[in-house]
């Protein structure tokens, strides 16, 4: 059954730029098959590298058993798992769910929803790791496709304060497209989308409160492509696993103008598609 949003939910999203829907996904049908596939991929990596780790019996609470052992042994194994898990069939089926189309069409009237190629995946944010933590940003800058876009974000583990909840600036989508610096001088180790910094970031953030989104597996957080947000700091002893699925609007005029082009994941730079968004450019 496709979900029906209330007018109150739609109004809240339009005002704040985000919406949380509890238990949007069915744990047995939608989430557990993804958990089980991740568990098996971890098991295959243990076997591949002949490591002495023994996974706990599978459950949705233990699906990432031995993953911390893997990345402690060799951080590169985390990258191997990262590339693998986005190809799990149960996850790919969820990405293109009709339920997402339905929600998109209810929030954006007269839209023509599309799935952003390269805009979906499963993240693991490791404890204490800053290099790949997403700083304050708008998804449009790192994704493009169309300004009128939505991020469907859902955790695969319980999101607590210690594991690092997503941080959102409610109402910040009304800023429109914010120019960015493409080099992070404070954290030079970051590259690509992780290296971008919002223009006049400190003053911009001071205009908005910050909401920390605590959520459970099965919950859905929907974000406007222009709402300003950042990954939380993971100070726990477990990686934060979450799904990101980005959808755009084929009918969006800017999307049509740029040919629904992608950004970093599509191998295109901000300069080549939106030079006006480069904060270092004269006159910006």
TrEMBL record:
<dbReference type="Pfam" id="PF05721">
    <property type="entry name" value="PhyH"/>
</dbReference>
<keyword id="KW-0223">Dioxygenase</keyword>
<protein>
    <submittedName>
        <fullName>Phytanoyl-CoA dioxygenase family protein</fullName>
    </submittedName>
</protein>
<keyword id="KW-0560">Oxidoreductase</keyword>
<dbReference type="InterPro" id="IPR008775">
    <property type="entry name" value="Phytyl_CoA_dOase-like"/>
</dbReference>
<dbReference type="GO" id="GO:0051213">
    <property type="term" value="F:dioxygenase activity"/>
</dbReference>
């Amino acid at each position: 059954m496709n979900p029906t949003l209330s007018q109150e939910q739609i109004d809240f999203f339009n005002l704040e730029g985000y919406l949380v829907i509890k238990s949007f996904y069915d744990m047995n049908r939608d989430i557990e098959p993804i958990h089980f596939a991740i568990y098996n991929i971890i098991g295959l990596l243990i076997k591949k590298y002949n490591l002495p780790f023994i996974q706990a019996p599978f459950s949705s609470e233990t699906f990432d058993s031995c993953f911390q052992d893997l990345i402690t042994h060799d951080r590169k194994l985390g990258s191997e798992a990262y590339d693998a898990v986005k190809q799990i069939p149960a996850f790919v089926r969820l990405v293109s769910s009709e339920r997402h189309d339905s929600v998109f069409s209810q929030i954006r009237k007269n839209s023509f929803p599309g799935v952003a190629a390269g805009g979906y995946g499963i993240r693991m944010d490791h404890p204490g790791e800053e290099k790949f933590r997403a700083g304050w940003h708008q998804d449009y800058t790192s994704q493009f496709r169309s300004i009128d876009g939505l991020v469907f974000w859902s955790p695969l583990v319980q999101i607590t304060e210690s594991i690092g909840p997503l941080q959102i600036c409610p109402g910040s989508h009304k800023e429109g497209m914010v120019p960015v610096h493409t080099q992070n001088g404070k954290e030079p180790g970051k590259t690509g989308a992780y290296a971008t910094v919002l223009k006049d970031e400190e003053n911009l953030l001071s205009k908005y409160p910050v909401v920390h989104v605590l959520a459970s597996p099965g919950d859905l957080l929907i974000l406007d492509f222009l709402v300003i947000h950042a990954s939380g700091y993971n100070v726990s002893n477990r990686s934060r696993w979450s799904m990101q699925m980005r959808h755009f609007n084929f009918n969006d005029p800017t999307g049509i103008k740029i040919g629904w082009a992608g950004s970093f994941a599509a191998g295109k730079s901000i300069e080549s598609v939106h030079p006006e968004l480069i904060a270092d450019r004269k006159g910006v």
